[in-house]
Amino acid sequence: MKSNGESPAHSELKRLAIHWALENGFPAVATEVRLPRSAFRADVVAYRPGKNALGLTAVFECKQSRADFLKDSYATQSTRERLLKLEERRATLERLLRVHHPSLRQGESLFEEFDAVDFDQLDHRTYHRVLREIGILQRRLYGKTKFDRLTRYRCANLNYLVVAPGILRPEEVPVGWGVLGRRDGALQLDRAPTRQEIADRDKLWQLHRLAIANTRQALALPLHFPESVTRVTGLEK
Predict the structure, then answer these.
(1) What pTM was estimated for this model as a whole?
(2) 139, 147 in Cβ contact below 8 A?
(3) What are phi and psi of 88, to 5 degrees?
(4) What is the pLDDT of residues 185-201, one digit of tens each?
(5) Which of 27, 78, 91, 131 has the smallest number of CB atoms closer than 10 Å to its CB?
(6) Range(s) of the domain holding residue 140
(7) Is 203 exposed, middle or buried (0-12, 13-18, 19+ CB in 10 A)?
(8) Is the pLDDT score of 184 beyond 80?
């Protein structure tokens, strides 16, 4: 274990997440960044500038082991089987919706199947009902309150799980999250996330936190801001 309590395996996933973000159009990246609307810190946070407005924020949560992912929660077979069926239904609906609503694509990937899609703007009752039930079953099985809260609180436009091989099954992926799997010393996109809209003030808040995290990491020293700065930016000392 490292002196800060982080394992080498977890550190490596964070390093790979940083490289993936940089290679995929996110030039601003930092680790251990506090998220808006919550007390959570993300393993990695990245920002992609927009052309004429604020761009996209992305959160990367790294899981090195299945125990880390499950957080010691238990599962029942019947609930798992129901979750698997719902996940298959979700995948079918999303495949059909991509065909019938091509305008939902964000155009951020050369490959259609890996492109982020903003399903939030689509009023499809069956699809959203399936998502709600998947979320309920996942919380019942695995207690993934952090994943659920990050989505419900709209802490970022895009959420990614960064995982080692064999960590989770497809039906266990939290609703709306993308998956980056480690293979051959690099990350590959196994599932694209669902893009969600967040308020501009939260994007600005996140940019402040990202900048502060990078500065602290560069200097390796705690920073103390005068009251005038914290009052203007809304950041705590």
Answers:
(1) 0.65
(2) no
(3) -65, -40
(4) 999 999 999 899 888 99
(5) 78
(6) 8-233
(7) buried
(8) yes
